Amino acid sequence: MRLKEKIAIVTGGARGIGQAVAELFAKEGATVIIIDLLPLGQNVADSINKSGGKAEYHAVSVTDKSAIDKLFKEVNDRYGKIDILINNAGITRDRTLDKMSEEEWDAVIDVNLKGVFLCTQAVVPYMKSRKYGRIVSAASNVGLRGNFGQTNYAATKAGVIAMAKTWTVELGKHGITANAIAPGFTMTDMVKKIPDEHFAAIKASIPLQTVAEPIDIAYGYLYLASDEARFVSGICLTIDGGTSR
Asked: In sequence order, which residues have a C-beta less than 8 Å from that of residue 178 and are 6 or more positions away?
């Protein structure tokens, strides 16, 4: 087991990539703390526990600093440590620049960027105290190349990459690594809603001629969260079938 006895927090773990990460980490021996506002998070935790893993669910917003600080303290007090933080929670509010509202901009910045900042800021003291930590945050290949109608989303994902590189410099002396993962199109609920004709064009644009499954991305998180990646920090691992070549 690659994460035996590790304590891992996974934000946005109720579905999609976050769910795949939570389930994979549990199979690899971690106790998984799922944070998500969707009640489906409880179903994920229940399924993991029934399968012999260890998981718990908490309905907390990553944008609520006091609630995040309180929860992370409770987790650390209960388990004596927090080894891994997976900043996976994120939203989209797509609109072209000329039509995007200030509210749509603020909503995406609040969750995708501020939420990553707040969760990482909350966890770092506990990681520093043990001179160990793995922080992996969800970027996107959109953060590397932009995308039509996603000014807000692309900005947050580019920001996540920059934050990971900054934290690498600040936290490395404390035994903490910080990395990002940039997925391409992945078969989440959001992607499944794309009309067939558009989906076919997307698939054709990917060199591997297929769309990722959530587990494909989860394996990237597993590597960066494991001790196998002890000397890997400050990178953005792109998992998009060669789209961002």
From this structure: 120, 135, 136, 137, 163, 164, 165, 167, 168, 171, 233, 234
